[in-house]
């Protein structure tokens, strides 16, 4: 008798890289290096440190080789991923702490390095910001390689897949994802991870469909199982039936045609059917992301997160180092504007190697961070402000303060900025003396006092991610209550409307730079509420621009007016979804 047919199983995850793949699964199991622990005899301690140096050198050579291969096979921008890995190997705080741990304990260097690197990994994994939280994977990947070299073990690799396969793993390290043979891997699926993981970045560059956050799929799937990976809707279908295969064949044809329409629309102006122009800008974290800003025809950078410069170093970057980074972005984006957000660091975003600057807190989400940290450490704040001011001579730069809770903080920040301007003037250093200053609206107290803040600002940018979680008392990264994080909650809609109305009374424009801005289902609601511009991840620009060009602003205003009368988040979402579907068809 033939074996019984396997039951079709559909699993929902997070769409990370668009496309549809069908093929057999290869389950990639990663295991942490088993680290022995023993006491090193005093006369052998010099040799032990030398062994550590050799392992670091070998790891550096391996990563440099991977970087060169990625640059050759995928592209120079994707190869920049591994600069962060090389920086880990140059981190004197990490290396120094390992040596000190070894000198104090006398335990073998593997044990000491494993303990120290684990502390760094834990610190980064607890950061609230999704992108920065993913950087813990950089440290984990490098640490595993160093340990493998210390122990003389062969490195894990996905470069030897026997045939075309969909790779399913709990997670895929950056170096493993970069080493995948592009002719063999036709899809990537991970139990954990997010849209900002390096595996996803590599998958997108390879145009390989990817779905992340598919819990425990590695325990349900087996090598050789057949599956469909839907990178549009974040769905993985194990053992698809013939009818499902037929349906997905038709879907794939429609999706490819729709993608072509999106990219065609993205080359056009962001203007509604009734002639209203909409500003669509990009969020970035690193200088090299400017290429995406241009590729997706953004109208500038609406949010340049500067924490990356600090979190990838064990020391505070100098004014000159910051200036060069800000200038590079301003030069590249000109004549479009660049909104540089001052340091949002501290509390849940500690800097490795600087425990004195960031004391442990019971509630880091509401703790010593962002503008509070900067006003306490004005030497660090002034270095950044002077760097931004100097960069303003090279492009259309604007400054934005994060986590402003009220007028007093805003006035204090502006006073420090005025001091920096006076210092630069005294030295004859050029800068834009008419540079615009804005505030993030992400704390309820700032939203309530928007009328007061508007008197001191040239613009507002609403950070919906934090504003929603603070309004609803929901930790958006807590799996147990994440379902309560509702962007369409009436409190959120009414708060957004209040901020817009108070700002507009004083001629202050308002944009949104949170996740809501990049969701085409929510974009019409935001614009209908009176939001003047949207800033998002560059990859979302085509979808949002397509919708803008397919709608009337008058209809969006009617949608917002109706939403303000409704009491159910689900009902408001349903109205937004219906608005979207009525104007965007994949057929």
Describe it.
The protein starts with 8 loop residues before the first strand and ends with a helix. The chain is globular, with a radius of gyration of 25 Å. It has 25 helices and 16 strands. An eight-stranded mixed β-sheet has the order 1-8-7-3-4-5-6-2. Strand 4 (165-169), helix 8 and strand 5 (185-190) form a beta-alpha-beta unit. Helices cover 48% and strands 13% of the residues. Helix 3 crosses helix 7 and helix 11 (242-266) crosses helix 23. Among the domains are: 9-30 and 157-244, 3-Layer(bba) Sandwich (Glucose Oxidase, domain 1), CATH 3.50.30; 42-151, Orthogonal Bundle (Enzyme I, Chain A, domain 2), CATH 1.10.274; 251-274 and 463-532 and 539-587, TIM Barrel (Alpha-Beta Barrel), CATH 3.20.20. It is α/β, with parallel strands linked by helices and 587 residues long.
What can be said about this structure in brief?
The chain is of the alpha/beta class and 587 residues long.
Give me the CATH superfamily of one domain. Answer: Phosphoenolpyruvate-binding domains
Low-confidence residue ranges: none
Q: Write down the CATH topology of one domain.
A: TIM Barrel
Q: Which outline best applies?
A: globular
- DSSP strand content: 5-15%
What share of the residues lie within helices?
40-55%
Looking across the biggest beta sheet, what order are the strands in? 1-8-7-3-4-5-6-2
Question: What is the CATH architecture term of one domain?
Answer: Alpha-Beta Barrel
Please give the count of helices. Answer: 25
Q: From the alpha-carbon coordinates, what is the Rg to the nearest angstrom? A: 25 Å
Going by helix content, strand content and strand pairing, the class is: alpha/beta
Biggest sheet features: 8 strands, mixed
